[in-house]
Amino acid sequence: MRKKVLIVGGVAGGASAAARLRRLDERAEIIMFEREEHISYANCGLPYYIGDVIKDRKKLIVQTVDAMESRFNIDVRTRSEVVSINPKGKTVLVHSPEGKYEEDYDYLVLSPGAKVRRPNIPGIDSDKVLALRNIPDTDAIKNMVDKKHIESAIVIGGGFIGVEIAENLRLKGLDVTIVEMFPHILSQFDDDMVTVLENELINNGITLFLNNKVTQINDTADNVEVALSDGEKLSADFVVLAAGVTPDTSFIEDSGIELGPKGHIIVNEKMQTNIRDIYAVGDAIEVVDYVTGKKTAIPLAGPANKQGRIAADNIAGLNSTYKGTQGTSILKVFELTAASTGNNERALQSLNIPYHTIHVHPSSHASYYPGATQMTIKLIFDEQGTILGAQIIGYDGVDKRIDIIATVQRLRGTVDDLAELELAYAPPYSSAKDPVNMAGFVAQNHLSRLSHLITWDEFEKLEEDYVLVDVRSEIEYRMGNFEGSVNIPVDDLRRRLHELDKSKAIVVYCRVGIRGYIAERILSQNGFKVYNITGGYISETARHVNNAQHSSKDDNITENIKVDPDTQTLEIEK
What we know:
Number of strands: 35
Shape: globular
CATH architecture of the largest domain: 3-Layer(bba) Sandwich
Strand content: 25-35%
CATH class of the largest domain: Alpha Beta
Radius of gyration: 27 Å
Number of domains: 4
CATH superfamily of the largest domain: FAD/NAD(P)-binding domain
């Protein structure tokens, strides 16, 4: 029997479902509705076209109508919007340039995507407030940026899109300000990681207003004025709205299709809605968090493509299931790369899930081979060693390491697996002990109680009587240290044990944590109670570096901090 399948929406999920279904069923009648002109485009590449990194607009188009029709025999109807669904009659109502009409179906795949969230701010409907979600949005911003006398922009929102468009506007020579309502940008990253990214933005000339809401927008003859909740008033030539997205599902609210509390479509593991012959995929659906098993919404292109494929499989009679979304993501922030997978600390705390964290700062490849740069890996895991999440920031090799950790996480692996992985090694590419192995080793030591790791936050809350010991060299100590610490280099520690009080806890730190671990093993086997601060001095200076940009003095740091342009590592300036 010939199936008639309607697909509402293209881009990642809808286009993938259409192509997969045709490959599985040559006889099916497939009709795709897209309310815009383009059915499939590189959504994630849009900011880079605005910044002239991608120069040819045609390269943003992933699939054209003609190609989709000729190769896959799909009836593609652009500028056609499905405005309502009648599940009982198995029809949809379509608005097109030719008028309104109904189309019947055997199966329906919904891929309506998400739309830019528009906060209720007076003046937000100004012509000088633009958003970035599709090709027309891109053209509007590009046309604005390329005009003469356009010199400045304000970006509302510090998520992935906000940061990417801010960077690309800055590359075009504009003065750029980001306004973020939360204390930090990029909510996927914890506070102890994201400050490095904020510092990178500041160092490249972008102004940040954090923990600040936009309360009003005034469109003047020459520019646009933006009022903030702290009383600050900003002005620029135009504003880019990047305050997140919301599911574009208002057209199905009265259809009987079940929606979540924020308007996302509820689906099962086969991508089916509560109505048997209706499937849904992409940014508009609620998914299962692969790590916690909880319901969530994660609008990413990779999962949307897989969901489209799975919906097509089940319509064609294959038994495919979607096992959840990890949220693995990556972005470029000028010279830095930042990536994450799984859950961060805030998410786990909100769910009352116990966890451990470690930080390591390995080189991207063998340090003796030219070009090695430092990265920071934060690994989050439970008492059994199961990987709950990871965040990595660095200049090179970040993508490879986050993908390795995400793969182990997908296979329900543990920190033991990270330690045991046999990864490709040659000096230009890695080290004999890859950064991923190093993270596994440190986590293993922590869980086996060979090392008692604490974070700087935990150290600041330590209620025990303690001595803070800096085990770096004397030269390193003189270049910068933490108030109240004493310096006993790790190589001198055995002969200077008598200087330490066994009635007090000994808290050790080094530059990145390795010497701290060695010091801890020496001290613990000589009868001391020891804590080693994970990630060492680099982790704490990175955490405070953003404050150093705004203040000439910090109570906890006795020196200024900068990023060395040659080594791309945090250095201390005397």
